Amino acid sequence: MEAVWDFLRHVHDAYGVNLVHFYDGFERGRMLRGMWTTLQLATLCILLSVVIGIVGAWVQGSRSRLLRAVVQGYIQFFRNTPPLVQMYFFYFALGPMMPRVENEYGIPQPILGSFEWAMLSLSFFAGAFNVEIFRSGVEAVQKATVEAAESLGFSRWQIYREVVLPLAVRVCLPALNNNLVNLAKTTTQAYAIAVPETLFVASQIWSDRINVFEMMVTLLTFYLLLVGAFVWLMGRLERALRVPGFGK
Amino acid sequence: MSTWTPEQPIVAIADVHKSFGKVDVLKGVSMDVRKGEVVCIIGPSGSGKSTLLRCVNALVPIDRGSIRVEGQEVHDPAVDKLELRKKVGMVFQQYNLFPHKTALENIMMAPVMVLKRPKAEVEAQARQLMRKVRLDGKEDAYPGELSGGQQQRVAIARSLAMQPDVMLFDEVTAALDPETVKEVLVTIRELAEDGMTCMIVTHEMGFAREIGDEIYFTDRGVIVEHGPPATFFTEARDPRTRAFLSQIL
Ligand SMILES: Nc1ncnc2c1ncn2[C@@H]1O[C@H](COP(=O)(O)OP(=O)(O)OP(=O)(O)O)[C@@H](O)[C@H]1O
Ligand SMILES: [Mg+2]
User: Fold this and answer.
1) Nearest-CA neighbor of A54 among A123, A118, A135, A173?
2) pLDDT above 60 (res B1)
3) For the segment B42-88, what is each residue's pLDDT rounded down to a tens digit?
4) Is residue B46 in contact with ligand 1, taking CB distance under 6 Å?
5) FRET pair for B214, CA 20 to 30 Å: which of A50, B87, B200, B208?
6) What is the ipTM of this complex?
7) B112 has a pLDDT exceeding 90
């Protein structure tokens, strides 16, 4: 590894291509921690937003008009307002209202930090779309199939969990895929509330080291790889869910 | 709670009315089915046959009248639908198997999830049912890999796995090609011979005649007439019945 860093140092000296965020141990550490933060943020947001989508689509099929209206209101709010404003709202408007807890030095600090707020706001944002996506899948499930489950004595939740959802997921996976890819990319927005994710640390590094172009290329490559890996995983999931003789 | 005894009708339908919006689908239907009896319901399309069956297991609520299964009022709001559906199995025209589950899983799901029976025991029973409907070897096939007739027999096995007291069959051979109709009818006949109480909506007159203890003819939401096959097919009194029979036979 040292040899590689030496080589990059040489490239910098000889050709002016500044990859200091690789060969310098301190900058490398910053960048890797940023990437790790992005990875955590994206993973948690994806999971949480999918849970929101599944539960929301279930509630939309409930008999209670009040519950359905709540979900509808949630969807309208998060779909029709800018995600950055939502994040500001969560962090700057809701954040200060939250109770404070003492940290290990006895200093009071907010119960939720910027990372948690970013996670929540992005999950709610993508979750609103996921509800709609899952609902379209649910609507594609044949009523007769549901009726068969009913006639066998399945409860409403069992029907959803065992019959409707597994069939709906297979239908809506492509749309879900798109939304989750968007979500993974939108995690860069956490920059705006100073979550030390990849874009945030990158901008710190390029201000300190004046290597904007090299940093940008690194950044874009990182997201290409991240999203590429995610798409590959989803492709595997899609294959794993494929049922012989179904959905031709 | 119910004081039902096996001598009383296992399904007692009395003056049932049902409409969908402005359409009156059932207009005062009454029918008694005794334990072990096989009742065949025939009649023109749209006469309300499917709706009647669906009322019996509470898939559709009724507007007026009463339906009792083993003495228990089906449309009592306080009725335990689960208890009802344990007693009444239903097989549909379009099979309605769960397409993402194998044949064996289709059969096992309800006993495991609804009746909470141990999985190993249910699996043994499911394999036995697969043999009974002559589909051993197809346990791991998905519905999409089975023919219509095979799917329908899995659907029958799936209902039987709940060990119901009454089976409802709604035109279960109507979507099948003529060669596979027979294999499904054989399965149903064996069931009937084992003493299962059956309510069968069918267009197969030969089958109804052979298997039915009582034939009901419905038209526009009413039962026009009924009787045992020996007399029903030869001595139908009502002109509507005669017209229908002459068309179809
Ligand atoms: N859920 C529903 N909503 C509205 N109308 C319905 C519904 N179900 C059935 N109907 C109507 O009720 C009438 C009777 O339908 P049903 O399916 O019971 O007839 P059927 O005797 O089974 O006919 P077929 O032989 O074609 O199956 C039809 O006119 C149908 O359009
Ligand atoms: Mg019908």
Assistant:
1) A135
2) no
3) 999 999 999 999 999 999 999 999 999 999 999 888 888 888 999 99
4) yes
5) B87
6) 0.91
7) yes
CB of B25 within 6 A of ligand 1: the answer is yes
CA distance A198 to chain B (A): 40
| Residue B4 domain flag | no
**CATH 1.10.3720.10 is the classification of domain A2-80+115-210:** yes
Please check whether residue B226 touches A, CB under 8 A: no
Among B51, B54, B98, the residue to mutate for chain A (most A Cβ within 10 A): B98
Tell me, yes or no, whether B86 lies in a domain. Answer: yes
Query: B145 is in which domain, residue-wise?
Result: 11-248
Residues of B in contact with A158 (CB under 8 A): 113-114
Please give the full DSSP string across chain B, using - where no structure is assigned.
-----TTS-SEEEEEEEEEETTEEEEEEEEEEE-TT-EEEEE--TTSSHHHHHHHHTTSS--SEEEEEETTEETT-TTS-HHHHHHHEEEE-TT----TTS-HHHHHHHHHHHTS---HHHHHHHHHHHHHHTT-TT-TT--GGGS-HHHHHHHHHHHHHTT--SEEEEESTTTTS-HHHHHHHHHHHHHHHHTT-EEEEE-S-HHHHHHH-SEEEEEETTEEEEEE-HHHHHHH--SHHHHHHHHHH-
Size of the A and B interface in Cβ pairs below 8 Å: 78
